[in-house]
């Protein structure tokens, strides 16, 4: 029997400047606090030493991991290598903001073992980048990607934002055209959402954004264009070339184990879901004082249904049944969904189409009768 290996997530809660639409937990970078934080992370990670946990993906997310000096990220990665049994071919990803990296910086990360990088590019149009409050221009983003490639990163992902203020169908296609020309093999395409409590959460922005129908059309256009350019969709928002799915993110959707470190980092480990609260100071003093249990005993049927329907691999009806799902209800629903072109149903696998992904929440409620 092969054992599923764990993923490790490290949250770096610092950014050079907060983007107005973002509700990830991140604060302005303060260098002395950053050192204290890395010390806390290293000792927290070290507490797993001796548990013989095998790891095949490590992901540094944020925030902006690359707002820290490279040597601090390398210290954290060294701590992971020391505490866990890390596979030789482990996927080691770092999220990067294009304006925070140069050749020396990327070279240092690559030499230390980072082998995948995910850039928050968002758009190839500078007016859209400005509307998003981003600090980089598209030229800077392009240079960052090319530099990463020249330092030996073969797995490069870029984020693309759909539904930005000022975006048109033409400018979205232009962004996709420009991104696919770069030496990358993964694109995450997210629809802009207004998150509560962010500067974007105001009437002026709400009025300037597309309504849901236009947003949905833009999403379908992006899916079609990306597929046309060889980026195969494997999840609602994720596309890859050459089968290079994000191994780490697949763990979230396949219900594999992952252990998160840092404030706001979530874990699914030993059958439990837990996280560390959004409290940097508390985490620096004592990570365990900020630990919160989210769910001691998550409902496997609900989680499997919700997560498998995000993936193009779809929901396996045999497994759904094994978890106690109502198969006759599911099959009736599957034929309605297929008729409305929201899903396909072949050989016991229910897969949502891109149109189905747009209404996945209501499909999931109907599947589970909740
Ligand atoms: S750089 Fe990323 S994490 Fe930081 S504020 Fe902007 S979107 Fe959020």
What brief labels describe this structure?
about 375 residues; alpha/beta; TIM Barrel; Arc Repressor Mutant, subunit A; 2 domains; nine-stranded mixed beta sheet; three-stranded antiparallel beta sheet; 15 helices; 17 strands; globular; binds iron/sulfur cluster
Structural commentary:
The structure is a single chain. With 370 residues, the protein is an alpha/beta fold. Strand 16 (343-346) and strand 17 form a beta hairpin. The protein is built from 15 helices and 17 strands. It is globular. The mean pLDDT is 96. The chain folds into two domains: 6-253, TIM Barrel (Alpha-Beta Barrel); 300-368, Arc Repressor Mutant, subunit A (Orthogonal Bundle). It has a nine-stranded mixed sheet, with helices on both faces. The two termini are 35 Å apart. Bound molecules: iron/sulfur cluster. Residues 15, 18-19, 22, 24, 26, 62-64, 97, 120 line the site of iron/sulfur cluster.
Draw up the topology in text:
Blueprint: E1 6-12, E2 14-15, E3 27-28, H1 31-46, E4 54-62, H2 70-83, E5 85-96, H3 103-112, E6 116-122, H4 126-131, H5 138-150, E7 155-162, H6 169-181, E8 186-191, H7 203-208, H8 212-228, E9 232-235, E10 238-240, H9 247-253, E11 258-261, E12 266-269, E13 272-276, H10 280-285, E14 291-295, H11 300-308, E15 315-316, H12 317-322, H13 327-339, E16 343-346, E17 349-352, H14 354-358, H15 360-368
Parallel strand pairs: 1-4, 1-11, 2-3, 4-5, 5-6, 6-7, 7-8
Antiparallel strand pairs: 8-10, 9-10, 12-13, 13-14, 15-17, 16-17
Helix pairs in contact: 1-2, 2-3, 6-8
The structure holds iron/sulfur cluster (SF4).
């Amino acid at each position: 029997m092969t054992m599923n290996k764990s993923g490790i997530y490290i949250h770096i809660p610092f950014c050079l400047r907060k983007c107005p639409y973002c509700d990830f937990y991140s604060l302005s970078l303060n260098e002395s606090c950053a050192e204290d934080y890395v010390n806390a992370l290293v000792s927290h990670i070290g507490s797993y030493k001796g548990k013989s946990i095998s790891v095949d993906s490590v992901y540094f997310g944020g925030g902006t991991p690359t707002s820290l000096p490279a040597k601090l990220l390398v210290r954290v990665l060294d701590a992971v290598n020391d505490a866990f049994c890390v596979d030789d071919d482990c996927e080691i990803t770092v999220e990067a903001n294009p304006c925070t990296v140069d050749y020396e910086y990327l070279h240092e990360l690559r030499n230390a073992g980072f082998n995948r990088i995910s850039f928050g590019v968002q758009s190839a149009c500078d007016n859209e980048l400005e509307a998003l409050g981003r600090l980089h221009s598209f030229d800077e983003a392009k240079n960052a990607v090319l530099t990463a490639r020249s330092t030996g990163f073969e797995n490069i992902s870029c984020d693309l934002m759909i539904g930005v203020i000022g975006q048109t169908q033409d400018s979205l296609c232009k962004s996709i055209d420009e991104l696919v020309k770069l030496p990358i093999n993964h694109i995450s395409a997210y629809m802009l959402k207004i998150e509560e409590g962010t500067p974007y959460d105001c009437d002026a922005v709400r009025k300037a954004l597309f309504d849901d129908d236009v947003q949905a059309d833009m999403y379908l256009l992006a899916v079609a264009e990306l597929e046309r350019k060889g980026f195969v969709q494997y999840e609602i928002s994720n596309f890859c070339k050459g089968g290079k799915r994000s191994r780490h993110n697949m763990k979230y959707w396949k219900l594999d184990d992952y252990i998160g470190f840092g404030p706001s980092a979530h874990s699914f480990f030993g059958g439990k879901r837990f996280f560390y609260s959004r409290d940097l100071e508390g985490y620096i003093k004592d990570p365990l004082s900020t630990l919160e249990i989210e769910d001691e005993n998550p409902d496997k049927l609900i989680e499997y249904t919700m997560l498998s329907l995000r993936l193009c691999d779809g929901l396996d009806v045999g497994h759904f049944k094994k978890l106690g799902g109502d198969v006759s209800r599911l099959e009736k629903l599957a034929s309605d969904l297929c008729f409305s072109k929201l899903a396909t149903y072949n050989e016991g696998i229910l897969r949502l189409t891109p149109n189905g992904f747009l209404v996945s929440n209501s499909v999931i409620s109907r599947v589970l009768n909740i």
